[in-house]
Design brief:
With 441 residues, this protein is α+β, with helices and mostly antiparallel strands. Helices cover 48% and strands 10% of the residues. It has helices spanning 31-41, 61-68, 81-84, 95-98, 108-121, 124-144, 157-162, 164-174, 181-192, 198-221, 227-237, 244-275, 277-289, 291-305, 338-341, 345-348, 377-394, and strands spanning 5-7, 21-23, 44-49, 53-58, 73-74, 154-156, 311-317, 321-323, 326-328, 334-337, 399-400, 421-423. Helix 1 (31-41) links the parallel strand 2 (21-23) and strand 3. The structure holds protoporphyrin IX containing FE.
Length: 441
């Protein structure tokens, strides 16, 4: 396969109107089926976003890697021709994911300036320091699950397990008081949804601005050992460090990216294990020898097999480029279809569609690549490894309350389910108290 990103004057470039075009379903009804159709359509495919907004997607790993690392490709939406032409109104359903001011949409020096304070917050040393706190938090959440069961003994793991753990962790890191978390959750869910009405898009943006302003004011008045206080102090020492809008934008991307993705990772892993009981038995067998290794393998295989991020928005070439023989004009939008790549048979072989935490090759692109690769990958891996291990140790007989056919999150970005109903049954000998942290030995 040719996997080059060249200038448009490459003689073999295929005209855009000869490239297949697929309309993406904002409801996410058949996420992996749609990904299969895109893969079958070619290496470089045209797609239509809601309201017929055009974009491109790259369905093979090597060409996408070149795009993600290409020096002439911007993440700044001001370089998107559609946005410049006024074709993307502020109340468009995807606006909240695209027209933002933070490191996700910054290039070069501005990107490094905005990203640096965040990577300093998420060093390996810092993660080791907060690990015991995260383990205790997880044990409390796991212990409380039976209390959330309805009259039929059913507990929704999205609501009571997958959401509270990453939300509490990221809010403690960022400095968000507990009282603000339910509102932030609603706003983040609204942003990730691709079917949002124009009224809701506008209201959500206003509410985000307001709640972030309140958090910044609170930390200005009462600084703490958190990212918001660090960023405020940074600005006091160096007024050029970041603007008001960039400060709010940084907090927002941390809160949003820092929990919604990990929620999906936890749900996708639990669902995969409960629908593949043979694999769960193998994981348990491996965990008896080396629990860290066994649960880390589950996390990596889930990131490959069912990546939390579907189609990430967006990159804009600054000059016409040719990718695998197809010319993408300057100013068009290119998506990164991370969940599609995880099931690429060219990378993972004929059994790419199967969940197998013992497979040899689990290298994946679920955290992206290049200058914008996820700075929270270490934290997400740690949280998910600890949380899955605690859950499956504590409730070894847990099973899905539905047949596994669950409503997807209506989103082009988020690949997960809206709820995960399970029955948790407790064996007396596995009961725990969070003080001793026995779930995470
Ligand atoms: C399973 C969990 C996670 C997944 C799958 C994930 C995935 C990703 C991906 C694919 C990107 C790069 C997108 C691109 O530009 O193409 C990204 C960026 C980012 N992620 Fe994560 N992420 C996760 C967890 C986290 C956590 C826990 C945090 C915060 C603590 C975080 C913070 C960020 C930030 C700030 C960026 C923007 C980086 C930049 O543009 O330079 N993520 N994430």
């Amino acid at each position: 396969m040719t996997a080059t990103t060249d200038r448009a004057d490459t003689p073999s470039a295929v005209p855009a109107d000869q490239i297949p075009c697929i309309t993406l379903d904002p409801h996410g009804t058949d996420h992996h089926g749609e990904a299969e159709r895109m893969r079958a359509a070619g290496t470089v495919v045209r797609v239509l976003l809601p309201d017929g907004v055009p974009a491109w997607t790259i369905t093979r790993t090597e060409p996408l890697l070149e795009v993600l690392n290409h020096p002439d490709i911007s993440k700044n939406w001001h370089n998107w021709t559609c946005a410049r032409n006024g074709d993307i109104p502020d109340d468009w359903s995807l606006t909240g994911m695209l027209k933002v001011t933070n490191m996700v949409t910054a290039d070069g020096a501005a990107h490094q300036r905005l990203r640096r304070p965040v990577t300093r917050t998420l060093t390996a040393r810092r993660l080791q320091e907060i690990r015991p706190r995260i383990a205790n938090l997880i044990n409390d959440v796991v212990d409380a699950l039976p209390a959330h069961a309805d009259a039929d003994g059913v507990v929704d793991l999205r609501q009571h397990f997958a959401y509270p753990i990453p939300m509490a962790v990221i809010c403690e890191l960022v400095g968000v008081p507990a009282a603000k978390r339910p509102q932030l959750r609603r706003l983040v869910e609204s942003i990730f949804r691709s079917t949002t009405s124009a009224e809701e898009v506008v209201q959500t943006q206003a509410d985000i601005d307001q709640v972030l302003g309140e958090i910044i004011q609170l930390r200005q008045d009462r600084p703490g050992p958190d990212l918001t206080s660090d960023l405020i102090a940074l600005r006091q020492n160096d007024p050029e460090a970041l603007t008001d809008e960039e400060l709010a934008g940084t907090l927002w991307v941390m809160i949003a990216a820092g929990h919604e993705t990990t929620v999906s990772l936890l749900l996708n892993a639990i669902r995969a294990l409960l629908t593949h009981p043979d694999q769960l038995i193998t994981v348990r067998r491996r965990a008896a020898d080396d629990p860290d290794d066994a649960w880390a393998a589950v996390v990596e295989e889930t990131l490959r097999y069912d990546a939390p991020i579907g189609n990430f928005m967006a990159r804009y070439p600054l000059t016409d480029i040719t990718v695998a023989g197809v010319t993408i004009p300057a100013g068009d939008a290119i998506l990164a279809p991370y969940s599609l790549l995880g099931r690429d048979p060219d990378q993972y072989g004929a059994d790419a569609q199967l969940f197998n935490p013992s497979r040899a090759n689990m290298r994946h692109l679920a955290f992206g690549s290049g200058p914008h690769a996820c700075p929270g990958a270490g934290l997400a891996r740690m949280e998910a490894t600890l949380a899955l291990r605690a859950l499956f140790n504590r409730y070894p007989d847990m099973y899905l309350a539905s047949g596994g056919d669950l409503a997807p999150v209506p989103s082009l970005f988020s690949n997960s389910v809206q709820s995960l109903p399970v029955i948790v049954t407790t064996r007396p000998d596995t009961a725990s108290s969070s003080a001793a942290s026995p779930n995470i030995a």
